[in-house]
Amino acid sequence: MTTTGAPYAPFMDPRTAHPPGVSPLDPAAWLVVDPDYAPQMAQRDRLIADAAEIVTSATEDAGPALAEFRAVLLDHLARDGRWRVGRAAVLRPDDAETPLSLDALRLAGRLCQEDFCLLAPGADPADEHRLIAGVLCFPSRWMLSEKLGRPLTPIHRPVPGYAENLSARVNRLFAALRPDRPLMRVNWLVWPTDMLHMPQSETAKTPVPAVPGRFWLRTERQTLRRLPETGVVVFGIKTTVTPIEDLTPAQRAGLRAALAEKAEAEVGYSSGRDVHEAILAALA
Questions:
Q1: Which one of 67, 207, 278, 282 is separated from 245 by 20 to 30 angstroms, measured CA to CA?
Q2: Phi/psi at 168 (5° precision)
Q3: CA-CA distance, 105 to 110, in Å (whole number)?
């Protein structure tokens, strides 16, 4: 049987295997349109129509950044060629029309597969960037409402070792980001579900809904782009789920090796020991 594999496998490359694992991004490649575009956009349309209060949010001071984000996004789409920007609506790659009357967050969420979080620099250069707005249809067990207004380190409080090992590097990365030099990285985990919309409170202990005996590689193609006028960083998150049986033999071997190296705290945070061992067995 021939398998096409996962589009992203950061654990296969030493340069991207460990966080932050960033690399330069061609500005023209900011947004993705992949074979899942139509079904993912249909789900995003439903979520934004039925649960906008959950999947979109902004602080009171986010207005200028949202206006600039909207303008930059529409300019990019007009140049891209896969979208057609008209006077009243945008024709998407799946031939659905999205009205331009929508606010910036709903518009972005209904045009792109990416989720977007806007992070503003502090008044002092030493201050961490702070989350001021976002459209988050496909969260990996976190909630926009709980993170809104927080700086980067408190946002990542549940992540093992972030404050001790990563926060200083991430803060330097954000501080040095230039509008003309966007960056990207790919985050990954393996879950017993292919659900995309998975909001969960930090205080919840609810396990991931599982499909018995099945596992999926969940990747997040994360992009960082600074807006030139407000200085706000647009953090894009394109989520892809791939059944592990569809991975190439090399990807399966690389994924198993990467999982086997995870520290106990990481195992507990991502899946729990029992699920972790079941994933390793399925990849053997």
A1: 207
A2: -65, -40
A3: 9
Neighbours of 204 (CB within 10 A): 10
Question: With the CA atoms of 106, 107, 112 and 118 taken in that order, what torsion angle do they form, in degrees rounded to the nearest 10?
Answer: -70
Q: Which residues contact 147 (CB under 8 A, 6 or more apart)?
A: 131, 134, 155
pTM of the complete model beyond 0.90: yes
Could you tell me the two tokens for 185? 């990285």
108 pLDDT band, cuts 50/70/90, is very high
- Interval 161-216: pLDDT, tens: 999 999 999 999 999 999 999 999 999 999 999 999 999 998 886 777 788 889 99
Residue 12: exposed, middle, or buried by beta-carbon count in 10 A (0-12, 13-18, 19+)? middle
Query: Using CA of residue 258, residue 15, residue 196, residue 207, what is the dihedral sign?
Result: positive
- Strand arrangement of the beta sheet that strand 97-99 belongs to: 84-85, 89-91, 97-99
